[in-house]
Design goal:
The complex is a heterodimer of chains A (about 50) and B (about 500).
Chain A: H1 2-12, H2 21-48
Chain B: H1 4-12, H2 14-37, E1 46-48, E2 58-60, H3 69-91, H4 96-117, H5 120-123, H6 127-133, H7 145-160, H8 162-167, H9 174-194, H10 197-229, H11 234-258, H12 264-291, H13 296-306, H14 310-330, H15 339-370, H16 382-386, H17 391-408, H18 414-441, H19 445-450, H20 454-480
Antiparallel strand pairs in B: 1-2
Helix pairs in contact in B: 2-3, 2-9, 2-17, 2-18, 3-4, 4-7, 4-18, 7-18, 9-17, 9-18, 10-11, 10-15, 10-20, 11-12, 11-15, 12-13, 12-14, 12-20, 13-14, 13-15, 13-20, 14-15, 14-18
Classes of the chains: A mainly alpha (about 50), B mainly alpha (about 500).
């Protein structure tokens, strides 16, 4: 039960960890690549009927 | 809900469960194939038709076993599944007596729900069927609404009879059941695809493209929301982002392993995934049928991108397939069945494949840049294979074999092969039913709240209903709009 209470407290309020540079890179690259591919492939498909 | 320790043990069994799903699924497919060329070994399996007279609800699949009668085929089906699954749980070192007792109850409650869901006043949709059964009203759920009945029954047990739910836990194995179903469904999809190979290939490529963007966009946004807006630590945010954005239970557990999180973290995230998948299945198919009935494959892809467990996504796809086909039929357009479900399955299967790649990327970043400790194990490329969901190999095998046979078989033998695949599909439906019932039994909302998951649930709610569902709809629209299923002959 004490483990459960500790977990509940941890989930309710955890110490804030600032975003590391590598995390910002991961988010930025992932989002950028995803958006770039989305727009690029969607346009190519509409114009050239890729699929 | 099963206790945390039991679910953690289940996570460790995941690899063995994968291979067992491959064995059971391929065995069912292989035995059904025998019937295409020789004796029908599985024709005793029980099927359920939409019924107004309960005496006509059940029947064996094959007329060769008609003497069994409906109830007889139900009992034989139960006994066969108990034998096969019993052997599987022995291999997983689970108490066979506990499993046998629990599975007996699970099977009859789950299948009973399917029978209830097939009652005409719940299932009938088309004007022709209204006339056939002499009905003045129907809930119009189609017989796939039986999945929802099974789910709701499971939810009632979990939330109002939790001790009974705990007693059933030995046979509450939604991951095993859905993996077997996915292995079996490969052949059905192959037979569906072979008639329109160009369309099937196009859907495959569209699916791959849609998934890649979904992965990259979803994961980044959800991770940012969890870290920045809700202040979660990296240990919680990464499995949460994978669970919400990729594929629920498998992705959360794989990510937790990749970043060396405490086992309790992905297990609790997985519990949340199941709960929200339940909510999605109760809502999204009906939204899809209402707003996307003129773009059926957009609906199929959307469900694959939006519903975050394999079981819930495929069942949602099946329900939507039936609902949209019925709606289209009432407008005079008769689509071939299975293409919407097939699109959902394709999207989901590819998502599962990419779990291994993405968790390797995360593992590499965590072990080399975030939690870099001297002498600690770094992520290695072999982990991509270790985390690859092995049951997908079974799906690919049945798909490829089914496709090869369908393409090479002569016209005289084709009906027997199609019937054999339809026979294996009956087992797929039964495993879907077991999955849905099990998901319901795992969803104890009160226990979840007691575990303090309110803040996690808030992230999930904001991310899923505020972002993932709508971006998934946009991506599905961009790549699947205008593509329609072929018309039935």
């Amino acid at each position: 039960m004490s483990d459960l209470n500790a977990l509940k407290q941890e989930l309710a309020k955890s110490e804030v960890e600032p975003l590391l540079p590598i995390e910002k890179k991961l988010i930025g690259w992932s989002l950028g690549l995803g958006l770039g591919l989305l727009i690029g492939l969607a346009v190519l498909n509409r114009v050239f009927g890729l699929f | 809900m099963t206790d945390t320790a039991a679910v953690a043990r289940g996570a460790q069994l995941e690899l063995s469960e994968d291979w067992l799903a491959v064995i059971v699924g391929i065995a069912i497919f292989a035995l059904s194939l025998v019937g295409a060329a020789g004796p029908d070994l599985l024709g005793w399996v029980v099927t359920t038709s939409v019924w107004a007279d309960p005496g006509k609800a059940l029947a064996p699949f094959s007329k060769a076993y008609a003497s069994l009668g409906g109830f007889g085929s139900l009992v034989v089906t139960y006994a066969a599944l108990l034998a096969v699954l019993g052997a599987a749980v022995v291999a997983l070192k689970i108490d066979i007596r506990r499993f046998a007792a629990a599975f007996t109850v699970v099977f009859f409650l789950a299948y009973g729900s399917w029978i209830v869901g097939s009652q005409a006043n719940l299932a009938v949709v088309t004007p022709a069927d209204f006339k056939k059964f002499g009905l003045s009203w129907s809930l119009r759920l189609t017989n796939e609404g039986g999945y929802v009945v099974a789910l709701v029954l499971g939810l009632v047990i979990a939330n109002f009879f939790p001790r009974f739910g705990d007693w059933l836990s030995a046979a509450i194995r939604p991951e095993l059941y859905i993996k077997i179903a996915i292995v079996i469904i490969g052949a059905s999809l192959a037979v569906t695809a072979v008639g329109k190979l160009n369309l099937a290939t196009s859907l495959l490529w569209r699916g791959v493209v849609a998934i890649i963007e979904a992965y990259l966009i979803y994961w980044a946004v959800v991770y940012f929301v969890a870290r920045k807006w809700f202040g979660f630590s990296r240990e919680w945010a990464a499995p949460l982002a994978s669970g919400i954005s990729i594929c629920g239970v498998s992705a959360a557990i794989a990510t937790g392993g990749a970043i060396r999180a405490r086992p309790v973290v992905p297990v609790l995230v997985s519990s949340l995934v199941v709960i929200f998948a339940v909510v999605e299945v109760l809502i999204l198919p009906f939204l899809a049928a209402t707003f996307l009935s003129h773009e059926p494959l957009v609906a199929g892809a959307w469900l694959g991108l939006a519903v975050k467990t394999d079981g819930a996504a495929l069942a949602a796809g099946g329900i939507t397939d039936a609902l949209i086909l019925a709606r289209a039929a009432s407008e005079g357009v008769n689509y071939q069945p299975g293409w919407i479900l097939g699109t959902t399955a394709t999207v989901k299967v590819f998502i599962d494949i990419f779990i291994g790649v993405w968790t390797f990327v995360l593992g590499y970043i965590w072990t080399n840049h975030i939690d870099r400790l001297p002498g600690s194990a770094r992520a290695r490329p072999i982990e991509i294979w270790q985390r690859f969901p092995k049951f997908i190999l079974g799906f690919l095998l049945t798909f490829v074999v089914g496709l090869a046979i369908a393409l090479s078989i002569d016209a005289a033998a084709a009906p027997r092969f199609t019937a054999a695949v339809a026979e294996s599909n009956v087992f797929r439906v039964i495993f879907f039913i077991l999955t849905f019932f099990s998901i319901g039994v795992l969803s104890n909302f009160r226990k979840l709240w007691e575990q303090g998951l309110g803040r996690l649930a808030a992230v999930y709610f904001v991310s899923l209903f505020g972002f993932v569902i709508w971006v998934g709809l946009l991506i599905s629209w961009l790549f699947f709009a205008g593509v329609k299923p072929p018309l039935a002959n």
